Amino acid sequence: MSDQVEQALAEFEATMKGVRAAQRDLEAVRTTVTAKSRAVTVVVDAGGDVMEVRFPTHAFRTMPPAELGRLLVETIADARTQARRAAVAAFGEFLPAGAAAHGLFDGGVDFERVVAEAYERAAQPLPLATDPDRSDES
User: Does residue 78 carry a pLDDT above 80?
Assistant: First the structure.
C-alpha cells in the first residue's frame, strides 16, 4: 500500500508543478483582437480583464455612439472568449478525462466548492484493504 501512496503523491506533485507552470505562463498572456472594421483593438489578460483599448484608425470619429459602443462590447467579448480558450487549453491536460474545463473559466463551475470537496474527501481515512489470507478474529 505504501508504494501506491508514494506513487499517487509523486503524480500529484508532478501535476501541481505543471499547474503552477501553466499559471505562470498564463499570467504573461495577452490576447489582442481587432474588430473586422479595424476601428477598435482590444487587449485582455488571461483572465479576460481589459488591459487596453486602441483605435488604430480614425473611423471611430465618424461612428454613431451606439455603433461604437456595440463594436466595443463585441470586440471585448471576442477577446475574452479567445483568452478563455487559451486558459482552457493551458489547464485542460490537468483535469480528469471528461471534465468541462471551460466551466472553470466562464463561471459555470464553483471552483472553490470543488476544492473544498476535494479537501473533505482527502481528509477521510483510506478504506483498509482486506487480506484474503487473514481471517477476521473479532
Answer: yes
